[in-house]
Amino acid sequence: MVQPSRRAWDMTDEMGAEKSQLDTPRLVLDLPRLDRNIERMARLADDAGVALRPHAKTHKLLPVAERQIAAGCHGLTVAKLGEAELFAAHGVRDLFIAYPLWGARKWERLCKLAAGADIRVGADSYEVFEGISSAAFALGLSIPVRIEVDTGFGRCGVQTTDEARALARRLTALPGVRLVGLMSFAGHIYRTEPARRREAAIADSARLVEVAEALRADGFDITEVSIGGTPSAAHVAGMTGVTEMRPGTYVFSDRDQVALGWGTLDDCALTVLATVISRPAPTRAVIDAGTKTLSSDTASAVGGWGDIRGHLDWRLASLSEEHGVLDVPAGGDSPPIGTQVEIIPNHACGALNLHDRVAVVRGEVVEDWWSVEGRGLVR
Amino acid sequence: MVQPSRRAWDMTDEMGAEKSQLDTPRLVLDLPRLDRNIERMARLADDAGVALRPHAKTHKLLPVAERQIAAGCHGLTVAKLGEAELFAAHGVRDLFIAYPLWGARKWERLCKLAAGADIRVGADSYEVFEGISSAAFALGLSIPVRIEVDTGFGRCGVQTTDEARALARRLTALPGVRLVGLMSFAGHIYRTEPARRREAAIADSARLVEVAEALRADGFDITEVSIGGTPSAAHVAGMTGVTEMRPGTYVFSDRDQVALGWGTLDDCALTVLATVISRPAPTRAVIDAGTKTLSSDTASAVGGWGDIRGHLDWRLASLSEEHGVLDVPAGGDSPPIGTQVEIIPNHACGALNLHDRVAVVRGEVVEDWWSVEGRGLVR
């Protein structure tokens, strides 16, 4: 369907603007902060001698992928086949789809992709690997796969070492896949009190390494032991047996990551600009950003809906779809209607996913506009 | 930026399919249910002799707007100027922007729109109305406006009758706007126990009518008294003094609306198809729908993350970005990998907002595909 100049007005403020002049609500990405985050994680991985394969579900942005690769990442992780197709079409040759793909259409797309790039897939069941194998073998392909292990998050993944060993054995009968490693998401840390977070991250990784060793003892050539998660990264990078990390959110960081111990609020590169559009009461300011611009993602480690950069004493108390209710001080410092605010979201991945474009800034100057090419690629 | 055939694969299942054959996750709209919901609210308003101006933020779909107008709605409500522009460009001539518009760019766009269609705007401050007035007067326009009254939800709106009267008086000095009515969102009901919901809805409306009468006593010609909200609609449609209702979510309905007393789960027209992609434990099934396909919107009146149509005993216990964890019974009836499930979301507006297209079905047959034209129009 043709969409005649539907977003024409949306482009009017896209040239040479100051950040403070942008119309709101507006997603903004600060380039120096982004580059600092990319560099920090790259150095952390490099110092520890562990491979870095960032999860691109966080950013869905081609220019960010380019920057991560340029900083030394050997490839990317994605959650969706559509994301893999997007990045592969734009030159990323090494992709890990950390998600169980089901169904003939997805297996067909996977094989098409795997014929032209280095594609790994993670899953936790014989059924999924069998489907992939059948499609791949018919085309003369052998796709490297990783078994997902549930190290305690309670989502996907084989539950026990014996299950991992049994699945590995069954995979030997599947000619279109070859087992190369294990993966897990180090999710314990999201549910652990501050004093025990390091211990939780290490426990997740130690469990994965333990399963890898059991499989090696059975004769399997497990060369890739891959751990996901930003807040666990600093804790597990140097662990013996871990070969790869897949942090995603670090690239922007957000309110939750800071609460979990990753950097400071000043490191957060992705924000939402909003404007005070109503002052109904002395301590209530209503802004034009709600769940349709920030998402309704909560933070695991801190309450509330977002922080206001430069005004951490203001409290984003509630969100509707297009409204945010901000508790502010009464009196002289109270923000009048028209005041622009910059929100550090609870969850950068959720906020990014709601926007088609992001204003790329360096300090107060808008340097570029990037399309969120991966948004909406849910299959 | 050119996006060469980026979604080509996405269209492969878009012709003549059975619903059960759709690739997942996939947003689905059931046409008979949609039409039943549209008809039900139209009849409710008609029987009560109250005007119906549905809030289109729920659906953002041109074909749904057409159906609402065809069912007798005199116009639409929107939250965003971009939504107003979209619907006006496609023939909707009577639009109420129930949102305080701030800034010269938005006022300019508003005036352009108001020059060619019947546009009303709601706000609660002199500042916003003054900005609109200046832009409108310069072009020889007079824009009809409604004062928003906070009848208890605690978001936007003047707080007292005296504030409403004072604002109405100040508006008489603004040549580019003319006061025609009042609006409020009957939001109390979302926070009220079941036995007192009717009372809460009536209290919201009675408060708005009371303010309208006070303004009339001051000599203002308040002809429009407009109440928003689906769950309050049946309670307030017949109230003396209410002239218009602005329900939005009724058009699809969702898990929360049902819990609040609007219809049954069988009435819910908008669902997300998903597939079981992992069975890590006897009572745990993981599906390929998470917060990026359902949103992380909670329901105000019921816990959990969604209901599974036909399996109300299964429990959607948690969501990650691309995963949903489903508690299922162990044993023979436990869904194997590959099972398709149909999720009734907590909040239809939030789920719709994440998708570019919706599969339009009649029972099990896919009849059409609609573009979510209004998605992403956040300004």
Q: What is the general shape of chain A?
A: elongated
Order of helices and strands of chain A: EHEHEHEHEHEHEHEHEHEEHEEEEHEE
Using only C-alpha atoms, the radius of gyration of chain A works out to 22 Å
Q: What proportion of the residues of chain A is helical, as a percent range? A: 25-40%
Class based on secondary structure composition and strand pairing of chain A? alpha/beta
| Largest contact between chains | A-B, 76 and 76 residues
Beta strand % of chain A = 15-25%
| Terminal residue distance of chain A | 21 Å
Largest sheet of chain A: 9 strands, mixed
The stretches of 5 or more residues of chain A where confidence is low (pLDDT under 50) are 1-9
What does this structure look like?
The structure is a homodimer of 379-residue chains. The first copy, chain A, is built from eleven helices and 17 strands. The radius of gyration of chain A is 22 Å and the shape is elongated. The model of chain A is unreliable at 1-9 (pLDDT under 50). Chain A is of the alpha/beta class and 379 residues long. In chain A, the strands form two sheets. In chain A, strands 1, 10, 11, 12, 13, 14, 15, 16 and 17 form a nine-stranded mixed β-sheet that branches. Chain A has an eight-stranded parallel β-sheet with strand order 2-9-8-7-6-5-4-3. In chain A, 58% of the residues are buried. The first copy, chain A, has helices spanning 31-48, 62-70, 81-89, 104-114, 126-138, 161-171, 197-217, 233-236, 255-259, 291-294, 348-352, and strands at 26-30, 51-52, 76-78, 94-97, 118-123, 143-148, 177-185, 224-228, 244-246, 270-281, 284-287, 306-308, 315-319, 324-327, 340-345, 357-362, 365-371. In chain A, a hairpin with a 4-residue loop joins strand 13 (315-319) and strand 14 (324-327). Chains A and B meet through helix 3, helix 4, strand 10 and helix 10 of A and helix 3, helix 4, strand 10 and helix 10 of B.
